[in-house]
Design a protein that fits this description.
The complex is a heterodimer of chains A (309) and B (339). Chain A is globular. Chain A has 309 residues and is mostly helical. Chain A folds into two domains: 43 residues; 226 residues, Orthogonal Bundle (MetI-like fold). In chain A, helix 7 packs antiparallel against helix 8. Chain A has twelve helices and no strands. Helices cover 74% and strands 0% of the residues of chain A. Chain B is mainly α and 339 residues long. Chain B folds into two domains: 58 residues; 223 residues, MetI-like fold (Orthogonal Bundle), CATH 1.10.3720.10. In chain B, helix 4 runs parallel beside helix 7, helix 7 packs across helix 9 and helix 8 runs antiparallel to helix 9. Classes of the chains: A mainly alpha (309), B mainly alpha (339).
């Protein structure tokens, strides 16, 4: 009858523990390295661009001429920023009211049955890849715009900013809606009940109590959606075209920053030339704008959050 | 009660002459607002229907050369099925009636495989590290803020990163992977890493603390506790987030355009260091063709892509709905795309 001796697994488990800890830490560090990688790559290549193109950052940011293939080439980002802003503001005009209204409906009005239908529909809409929206703009939205607006005598180009704005707007609705809904749901029930107790209608509770209470969060979601629209690529490339121009007419082609990046990549500018390096300069501006917006949105959330307890 | 009766109450007398109840306006605004909000939400369904409907109709009613008119619907369906079958089997070509997405589909499958192999372990690992191995510290706040910001970086910027870092190896010849599947997969993995980390963190937070304490109290090491109890319990949430993240990677076009996905490739990709192209990239080039018959080809490709992605998303949502009914884990397993 041998005695069963308990053997401490000791050393093996100890090393396993340390190894796992180390591996997981490395995985976490990879996320930091990604950011550093983006900063280093954009920084160095943008620096190279300014040397190769013999231009200054100030000139790059303020010049209104973008002719990368001319001789001497001219690199001014203003037309690209203009194009981006036209599409982005247009899409926000569509997406923000619709997104907010649907957030209000889902959080305040919808019963569990309606919710269980509408919410997955919005989520699936969010999962449709952007290339599909681009195709849709080209095949459906632009012809529809053309057909209706030509009746009133407005000329619509094949590639135009308006249809890009419409599809990008549709694309960011689910995002505004789901982020804002989370915010509205977090507003404590007591506030609503107090307002009802004073005789407010549901409309008044929504617009004068719930929405103001969640205003900081709603703002944050608006800014995130705005930044997402700025970074949107494929839909804009297909719908808005490749013509860098500053024009007040939204039914004509514009080029956004993302579209410029795609057009240079699919063009045949060799590596290391000023034209190819201008990718990184435009990419840096794009990155900085979206980064600032994202940080700003996070800052709003932290500093203006209403604390209920 | 009708609007009129609301507006003239029986015993109406007010001490304050400035008091305006605005009953009529309030009685109109209230249901109006409700319907406006409902309509806005319903637009989501309408848009989804439009997207799917337009693509379906284009496949059923092809445009351009070879388009037939006046044939019955049944024949149209069999034609559409034949079209889809051809699109799956054929390789790219010059004639719209010949081209297919075989190379792109294979390329996307390779990308899917490597993205799962790379992004899931790293993402889940990073989330485990943040949730289970670090307390509240400045380091954790830094990593957390960093991940939140990475989630908001436009995909095309990841494309620039992948182009420089993976395809060209920062200019060092020995590090450069060239335009191959691996470079594309690494880029897409970095792109969806924040999505997976955030989703996994939420799933881990939803696991009750008592489970961890019980395992540790019985003498399990931290890793044993994680492997045997935490991960199995959080698995549905992690799975949901992972599927949503991966399906996003499969639908991405812009970063792949940067990291050397070919416009039209005749050779099927056979290994991780081969040249590649992906389904969305081929769709993009077909959609750009001015020839109308390519529009049908693009629509067919989109139909294939959507079938794949919507199945994945539907599955993810289904897993979440099913688990959220379980008590104790309710509600918190929600995952958002992007951020």
């Amino acid at each position: 009858m041998g005695r069963v001796q308990w053997k401490s697994p000791g050393r093996f488990l100890h090393w396993q523990e340390r190894l796992v800890h180390m591996i997981l830490a490395i995985f976490a560090v990879i996320t930091i390295l990604t950011t550093i990688g983006i900063l280093v790559v954009l920084g160095t290549e943008t620096y190279q661009f300014f040397i190769k193109a013999e231009t200054t950052p100030f000139e790059f940011l303020t010049s209104r001429k973008l002719e990368p293939e001319a001789d001497p080439p001219k690199f001014g980002i203003v037309p690209l920023i203009w194009g981006t802003m036209v599409v982005t503001f247009g899409s926000c005009v569509i997406a923000l009211p619709i997104g907010l209204a649907s957030a209000i409906y889902l959080s305040e009005y919808a019963g569990s049955l309606t919710r269980s239908i509408l919410k997955p529909a919005l989520e699936i809409l969010a999962g449709v890849p952007t290339i599909v929206y681009g195709y849709l703009a080209l095949m459906l939205v632009t012809p529809a715009l053309r057909y209706t607006l030509e009746l009133v005598g407005i000329k619509v180009d094949t590639y135009n900013a308006a249809s890009a704005a419409i599809v990008v707007g549709i694309m960011i609705i689910p995002m505004v809606s789901s982020l804002s809904e989370d915010v509205l749901r977090a507003v404590p029930q007591g506030l609503r009940e107090a307002a009802y107790g004073l005789g407010a209608t549901k409309f008044e509770v929504c617009t004068q109590v719930v929405v103001p209470a969640g205003l900081s969060g709603i703002m944050a979601s608006f800014i995130l959606a705005f930044s997402r629209a700025i970074g949107e690529t494929m839909a804009v490339v297909l719908a808005a075209g490749q013509l860098p121009q500053i024009s007040g007419n939204i039914f004509t082609s514009v080029q956004t920053m993302t579209a410029y990046i795609v057009s240079v990549t699919s063009g045949d500018a060799p590596f290391g030339t000023a034209e190819h390096l201008s990718l990184y300069a435009v990419g840096s501006v794009l990155f900085l704008i979206t980064l600032c917006l994202n940080l700003f949105s996070g800052w709003i959330l932290r500093h203006y959050r209403e604390e209920y307890s | 009660m009708s609007v009129k009766s609301l507006n003239k109450p029986a015993n109406w007398s007010s001490a304050d002459p400035h008091f305006r109840p605005n009953r009529r306006r309030r009685a109109i605004m209230d249901p109006l607002f409700r319907w406006v909000c409902f309509f806005a939400t319903f637009l989501g369904v309408v848009f989804l229907g439009t997207v799917l409907g337009a693509v379906f109709l284009r496949v059923l009613y092809p445009a351009g050369a070879g388009a037939k008119s006046g044939i019955p619907l049944g024949e149209r369906f069999s034609d559409a099925c034949a079209l889809l079958r051809r699109l799956v089997v054929n390789k790219p070509g010059i004639e719209a009636s010949e081209v297919g997405y075989r190379v792109g589909l294979v390329g996307s499958a390779w990308l899917l495989l490597f993205v799962i192999l790379i992004a899931v372990p790293v993402g889940v690992g990073a989330a485990l590290y943040l949730e289970e191995y670090t307390g509240k510290s400045r380091w954790k706040t830094l990593v957390q803020t960093n991940i939140a910001n990475l989630a908001g970086v436009p995909s095309i910027v990841y494309g620039l990163l992948g182009l420089t870092l993976f395809q060209r190896g920062l200019g060092f010849k020995s590090l450069a992977l060239g335009p191959c599947v691996l470079a594309g997969s690494l880029t897409l993995s970095l792109l969806i890493l924040p999505v997976i980390v955030i989703a996994t963190q939420e799933a881990l937070r939803a696991v009750p603390q008592s489970l961890r304490l019980a395992a540790l109290a019985l003498g399990a090491t931290r890793w044993q506790m994680i492997r045997d109890h935490l991960l199995p319990t959080a698995a549905p949430g992690i799975l949901t987030g992972t599927i949503l993240g991966v399906s996003r990677a499969i639908g991405e076009t812009a970063p792949l355009l940067m990291v050397g996905a070919a416009a039209s490739l005749l050779k099927v990709t056979r290994g991780p260091l081969d040249r590649y192209t992906a389904l969305p990239v081929e769709i993009f080039y077909n959609a750009k063709e001015p020839d109308e018959s390519f529009s049908t080809v693009a629509a067919g490709g989109i139909l294939l892509l959507l079938c794949l992605l919507l199945t994945m998303n539907f599955f993810a949502i289904w897993i979440r709905q099913r688990t959220s009914k379980r008590p104790g884990l309710a509600g918190s397993m929600r995952t958002k795309r992007g951020g």
